[in-house]
Write a structure and sequence with these properties.
The chain has four domains: 12-89, no CATH class; 100-179, GIY-YIG endonuclease, CATH 3.40.1440; 197-287, no CATH class; 300-338, no CATH class. Helix content is 49%, strand content 9%. It is built from 20 helices and seven strands. It has helices spanning 22-35, 51-58, 64-70, 72-79, 82-89, 122-131, 133-142, 158-174, 197-203, 210-216, 218-224, 228-237, 251-258, 264-270, 272-281, 284-287, 300-307, 313-319, 321-328, 331-338; strands at residues 100-108, 113-119, 147-151, 156-157, 178-179, 240-242, 245-247. Strands 1, 2, 3, 4 and 5 form a five-stranded mixed β-sheet that branches. A two-stranded antiparallel sheet has the order 6-7. The longest helix is centred in the middle third of the chain and has 17 residues, at 158-174. The radius of gyration is 27 Å and the shape is extended.
Length: 353
């Protein structure tokens, strides 16, 4: 299902954390929405997702993927109880994926005219067909009531679905049916576009603002985030907005912006676009002369002292990622530093036996 994309993952912290799990991505997205003044949804308290609330939330959605995308917390809580998850999803319509397809057909009543296809999302594919010129012409000629649409199979393994489609098309043609398929079958469609560096740079040509490009090509944006140099090139082409105003970083504006910060890390964290613009224009070293270079050796005592500020490993990782990363590489030290921390439970509340 194609979901409406808002201005996702614009937080600059993501540049150094490409392999974030889904909860971390959602946290960054929520923070960015708050900064943009968009509705973000608040974090639910521990044990919020009871059985009744999970079922009520699940019934709002038609597919599992829609549930995951729009209410990840309730979905993850339900997964802790297989029976509850089965009950919550029994009304949902199954859809395929990159490895599964279902077979469907279009026929005209009292006519030997047929179209055979395979798809990963039956409803979405049918809607797409009905908007096409070919099927619009059929409807004008025979009427909408004469058009019979049917899902012939469940979602099957991709290779088997392709072979089945080809075999049926051959049999129908031998039986003198007017088969509307142009090809012999096996065109799977629905595969996500592979965003190479060349394709990503091609996609930004017709855009002036970064946010407009992200909304139209979210896949290209997420692929580009894995390449720091590519993102710097994109930032150099597309203008960013601040407070609703378009900002184009000139040397004067960069110098003025850099004076607001005491360290390089603070500058990168709070104004990443000007930071990268300074590097691109070759004036970085010039504008950071007033900044303090913070260098400290991470001793065991310093790591433990920092860990005592936080109540859970997640809080420590999110608020002090560099020290957390240094600690996790030393197993014994990591155990000592986190012994006071309490694990966070994200599932449904368990009843005491």
């Amino acid at each position: 299902m194609v979901n409406k994309i808002s201005y996702k993952y614009l937080d600059r912290k993501i540049k150094d954390k490409y392999n974030l799990n889904r909860r971390e991505k959602r946290r960054l997205n929520r923070e960015k929405k708050i900064s943009l003044g968009l509705p973000s949804g608040t974090r639910k308290p521990m044990f919020y997702w009871t059985r009744e609330r999970i079922l009520k939330e699940a019934f709002k959605f038609k597919t599992k993927s829609e549930w995951v995308n729009r209410s990840l917390g309730s979905h993850d809580a339900a997964r802790y109880d297989p029976d509850l998850y089965k009950e919550a999803t029994k009304h949902m319509v199954p859809v395929g994926n990159s490895y599964k397809r279902c077979l469907y057909s279009f026929t005209i009543a009292r006519e030997k005219i047929v179209y055979i296809g395979i798809t990963y999302n039956f409803k979405q594919r049918i809607a797409s067909h009905l908007r096409s010129k070919r099927f619009q012409d059929l409807i004008k000629k025979y009427g909408r009531d004469a058009l019979e649409i049917k899902q012939e199979t469940e979602y099957l393994e991709l290779n088997f679905a392709i072979k089945l489609e080809r075999d049926i098309i051959k049999k129908l043609r031998k039986s003198n049916w007017n088969v509307l398929n142009i090809l012999e079958g096996g065109s799977i469609g629905g595969i996500r576009k592979k965003w190479t560096d060349k394709n990503i740079l091609e996609s930004i040509k017709n855009h002036k603002l970064l946010k407009d490009w992200i909304v139209k090509y979210p896949g290209a944006y997420h692929a580009a985030l894995k390449n720091k140099k590519l993102m710097e090139e994109i930032y150099s082409v597309l203008a960013r907005t601040k407070g609703g105003q378009v900002i184009i970083w000139t040397k004067e504006k960069i110098s003025e912006e850099a004076l607001k910060f005491k360290t390089r890390s603070e500058w990168l964290r709070k104004s990443g676009s000007s930071y990268y613009a300074a590097k691109r224009l070759g004036i970085f070293e010039e504008v950071v002369k007033h900044m303090i270079q913070v260098k400290r050796k991470l001793t065991d005592s310093l790591i433990i002292e920092d860990a005592l500020k936080y109540e859970s490993r997640g809080d420590w990782k999110n608020n002090s990622s560099s020290i957390y990363s240094a600690a996790i590489s030393k197993k014994e030290l990591f155990k000592r530093a986190t012994v006071h921390m309490k694990p966070k439970w994200h599932g449904t509340k368990r009843e005491d036996k």
